[in-house]
Amino acid sequence: MSDPSSPATVETPRRKAEATKRPRNSAKTKASILAAARVEFADRGFEGARVDAIADRAGANKRLLYHYFGNKEELYRAVLLDAYQEIRKGERALSLDQYDPVQAMDRLVRFTFRHFLANPWFPRLLGTENIENARFLKTMPDIKALHSPLVGQIAAIIERGAATGAFRRDVDPVQLYISVAALGFFYVSNTATLSVIFERDLTSVNMVQEREAHAVQMVLDFLRTKPGA
User: What InterPro entries does UniProt report for this protein, alphabetically (predicted)?
Assistant: First the structure.
């Protein structure tokens, strides 16, 4: 019979903890921290956000947060980069080159509008960074590389449309995208105040669908209007 007091058979608290400890899933933990951080930064701004609150929301150890992201500033930069990567990934998935210019622009406007609508934290996060005068964005060289392909893609759509006579040619792709983004951004970021002012529920399905169709029509009408007409 084995000695019950021997180290090989005694189940100490440490051994029990080691036996039940689950392997760390770093990718899942990092994703949970990013998701929690985007909400915290969007709701409270950079200055008001608390690392403790982010860790609690993510269900993660605060030491792991610092291990993966370094500090609050680096975590905020990671959230910003992730947010832009997410919308750019969605735009690439549209495969706009496969559609004729009118359809391509229609799809881009609808996607942009729906992205803001489905992710109301995104306009709030961008609002936070604008309050900071884009001081963090200025230190992120990856941001320019993310936006350049989009501008080039829009320019190609305009060129293809001009070649077929569907669109005017004298359109700045950067200005056009700012307008496309603004049509969705303003609606989502100001839904509460606009609903009160105009006594309409802008969150209702009918109003959202009406606004999306209106945004598409505005962009396409602009692209079809000849200069001086």
Answer: Homeodomain-like_sf, HTH-type_TetR-like_transc_reg, HTH_TetR, NicS_C, Tet_transcr_reg_TetR-rel_C_sf
